[in-house]
Amino acid sequence: MTELSFRLKDLENKDKHIDCVLAADMISDALSDLDADVDHSSLHLTAELSKHNVTVLCNGTLTGKLSVPCQRCLGPARVDVDQRIHTVFVPPSSSLSSSDGEDSGQEQDDDVDDVDYAHHDGETIDLLPIVREYIILAVPITVYCNEDCRGLCPLCGADRNQGDCSCQPVGKLSPLSALRDVKL
Ligand SMILES: [Zn+2]
Ligand SMILES: [Zn+2]
What we know:
Layout: E1 5-7, E2 16-21, H1 24-30, E3 42-52, E4 55-69, E5 76-90, H2 105-108, E6 116-119, E7 124-126, H3 128-138, H4 175-183
The protein binds zinc ion (ZN) (2 copies).
The site of one zinc ion has 6 residues, from loops.
């Protein structure tokens, strides 16, 4: 049992309201490939679990901010998170109708506002795997500290946001540019 797992029988007669700040190690675990700065990241989960016969509906939001390295300059880049969570937990014997396999679930989630499906084990609901997936989905493919980030100089590695280095720009000296100079 983790802090994000709940017994089905506790949902029998009343909905469960979840309101918690996610543990830092959960964020660092989900984003281990991204080198996230967990000290400057925080995520807040609010959700409502309601049981309907054998299925449990989880409706909620994951909000907060993440700090990951800028892809151009490697400085801190902030990602604002506002993910809607809408997952239906079905019994272990049911097929997951939203996808043809659990492994492909991540691609399927690109359809915003679609319902996701997951399994409960008949006794407990574990939100950890889905919350983990939503954390990963919250980070866009391209993350920059600033849209105008100038990145690092490919020659000397200097952060060009801090000022120009003395390297010559590359790729401008082509035969065509010489021709253009002649015409002028
Ligand atoms: Zn940057
Ligand atoms: Zn340089």
